[in-house]
Design a protein that fits this description.
Layout: H1 2-11, H2 15-40, H3 45-68, H4 75-108, H5 115-136, H6 138-153, H7 168-175, H8 186-207, H9 210-221, H10 229-244, H11 247-264, H12 269-282, H13 291-301, H14 305-333, H15 349-354, H16 356-370, H17 375-389, H18 394-398, H19 401-434, H20 436-445, H21 452-467, H22 472-488, H23 494-507, H24 516-525, H25 529-539, H26 542-552, H27 564-586, H28 595-608, H29 613-630
């Protein structure tokens, strides 16, 4: 990209080059504004939100144009497309300009929405919906469309879906000219002031070369395990994913290296892609950073961020333990032995220096949070530490423009994220204005507090369906704002509710048929995306179990209802259950498992997690006997 920019600066360049230059310039400006406003916060909030949306729309429009223009040979089509994009840009500027004007008028006096404001509102909706379709695909596009259709015509629907009806003035006031809900509401405020700095941090981490060193250390640490590169992919993707916050970026960043090596070790292409997809998604539940969604969660739930990452630690470790178990069982099944040649994983003195690039920023986040700084300031300090430490890498010293490329990529990623946030704000505004979320909460509550498991199962299913085809942050926001109130009515704490929903927001990216992570990883491995999705689902099955575990045993979160004996009990039983399930789904332990053995292991795993003493104690003993026999410790007749 910078070669194009250099060509423009020195030689003029063509139309495609001009688009690339404009996108690059605005993306760098957006990145610098994010850094400056996070560290110093000297921008007027209304103008800041409006300006970031204008910049984001501009970047997305011109980026799409520079990507698509060379592919089209039809002059008329290119011309019509150019004029259409021009209309979108002007419409967005007009809509956001009216927003800033009306907000200033509202700050000084009472204000009635005018017809021109209604036009501005729907111009803004049109731009957001079209750009959502281009950037994020049809799932979020249709969710947004259906939300607007519901607020416009929902008064004609039957039963609980019916609302009282809203005029166009009321829609514009609630969804466009409202700083608490709607496009410029509280979620936009959280993302702009907290999340975007971590988006930049994740991208710059990759561009400085820290990811390559992280991978090498991961391979070194797992060199003696049966899984080898598969275990290394889990470790590296977990560490890199917690900093990048994007499973897709994580898969592309680490998977292009790990997946081919996993295949060379003898694992199937679908398994290699499934491991990478599952591990990359898990990075978002791994403290200390946990990606963008966790930062939003802390604000929405009113939970201190340090408190949140402490609560998330043990469930995340269980998740990665389950991945390690799944890979180990699969390696045994395929007869894969540990690597003998260890010289290939030798750590050089330069690697030890480069390790500072990912260790120092993580430590700065932990120290900042422990010192009482906000998550945004922790992200700002981490970014500054990363930029300073990046010059340890000789590649950065030889080519400092890698950092500029990082700012361009970071600004572009931030712009695309803001488009999804705008769409989500429309959906959230509709739910809040019409009261649909509360109606849904009432329906779930009617299942009864005595049916907690059934209610959680309904909530899980709804969360997976709502989250399919979306990145984690939009998925989490939609799920928590629709499903969250209903789960909370079951008597669970705010922390448990948000983490429960968050886990299934992450899991939705692995759930067939719209498994985004699997569709990204599969082409790298040369595997079928649907088979990869089911493989990732099998490997990452613990992600579906752990939320139920901490819903019934909140002591796992360490910060709520803590009881040491209960913690020891559930840690042991959950570890046992995860291993039984992993081996059952692989149909293998030390030997091939019969169908009866598979069913027995699944049944014992389920019983061992139940709260009544009379169920989980016999089940735990039974599970230990099954494993003892399978591992030839007790020579019973064939049980497993």
């Amino acid at each position: 990209m910078l070669n194009h920019i250099k060509g423009i600066l020195h030689a003029g360049g063509g139309k495609g080059d001009l688009s690339i230059f404009l996108v690059s310039f605005v993306a760098v400006c957006l990145a610098l504004i994010i850094i400056y406003s996070t560290g110093f916060g000297l921008f007027y909030p209304i103008e800041q939100r409006g300006g970031i949306y204008v910049a984001s729309i501009f970047i997305v429009l011109f980026k799409m144009r520079s990507d698509l223009t060379p592919k089209s040979n039809n002059k008329l089509s290119r011309t019509l497309s150019m004029y259409f994009d021009f209309v979108l840009l002007i419409s967005s500027i007009f809509a956001i300009y009216r927003f800033t004007v009306v907000q200033k008028l509202m700050a000084n006096d009472l204000y009635d929405i005018l017809n021109i404001d209604v036009v501005a509102c729907f111009c803004g909706f049109f731009v957001i919906i079209e750009l959502t379709r281009r950037v994020w695909g049809l799932t979020l596009f249709w969710v947004t469309i259906l939300s607007l259709a519901y607020i416009l015509w929902g008064q004609d629907l039957p039963g609980v879906l019916r609302h009282t009806g809203f005029s166009l003035d009321q829609i514009a006031e609630n969804l466009w000219f409202n700083l608490n809900k709607g496009v410029f509401g509280s979620i936009t405020n959280i993302v702009v002031n907290v999340v975007l700095i971590f988006v930049l941090f994740g991208v710059l981490l990759e561009n400085t070369g820290a990811g390559e060193t992280l991978l090498k250390y991961a391979f070194r640490l797992t060199r003696k395990t049966r899984g080898g590169p598969a275990h290394a992919a889990i470790l590296a993707s977990g560490l890199f994913g917690t900093m990048s916050g994007s499973p897709v970026a994580n898969i592309v960043g680490t998977g292009t290296f790990t997946i081919p090596i996993i295949k060379k070790r003898g694992f199937s292409p679908a398994f290699a892609a499934g491991v990478e997809a599952t591990a990359s998604c898990g990075g978002q539940i791994m403290p200390p950073i946990m990606g963008a969604a966790a930062l939003v969660m802390a604000d929405l739930a009113g939970i201190p961020y340090l408190y949140l990452i402490t609560a998330a630690l043990l469930p995340a470790l269980f998740y990665y333990l389950s991945l390690f178990m799944g890979v180990t069982v699969e390696a045994r099944k395929q007869g894969i032995e540990p690597i003998v040649d260890l010289d290939a994983y030798k750590i050089t003195p330069q690697d030890r220096l480069n390790a500072i690039m990912f260790v120092a920023p993580i430590l700065s986040v932990i120290i900042s949070l422990a010192s009482g700084f906000s998550p945004a300031m922790a992200g700002f300090f981490a970014l500054i530490v990363l930029l300073v430490c990046s010059f340890i890498n000789p590649r950065v010293r030889q080519d400092p423009l890698r950092l500029v490329r990082g700012l361009i990529s970071g600004g572009t990623n931030a712009a695309e994220l803001m488009i999804s946030v705008a769409a989500i704000e429309i959906v959230v505004g509709v739910m809040d204005t019409t009261g649909l979320g509360l109606k849904f909460a009432g329906l779930v509550e009617n299942l009864g507090a005595e049916q907690l498991f059934l209610s959680l199962l309904v909530a899980m299913t709804g969360a997976l369906i709502l989250g399919m085809g979306m990145p984690t942050l939009p998925a989490y926001l939609i799920i928590v704002l629709i499903m969250g109130p209903s789960i909370k009515l079951l008597g669970l704490s705010s922390l448990v509710v948000h983490l429960f929903v968050f886990y299934y927001g992450v899991a939705s990216s692995l759930t067939p048929p719209v498994a985004i992570a699997a569709y990204v990883a599969a082409p790298i491995a040369g595997a079928n995306p649907i088979i990869t999705a089911f493989m990732a689902l099998r490997i990452g099955i613990a992600k579906f179990i752990i939320p139920f575990a901490f819903a019934y045993y909140p002591t796992i979160l360490l910060v709520e209802n803590f009881d040491f004996l209960t913690l020891i009990s559930i840690v042991f039983r959950l570890t046992l259950a995860i291993y039984l399930i992993s081996s059952a789904l692989s149909a293998f332990d030390r030997d091939k498992l019969s169908p009866i053995s598979i069913i027995l292991r699944l049944f014992i795993a389920f019983l061992s997690l139940l709260t009544p003493f009379e169920y989980h104690v016999p089940a735990t003993i039974g599970g230990l006997l099954v494993l003892a026999h399978s591992w030839k410790v007790i020579p019973f007749k064939r049980l497993a």
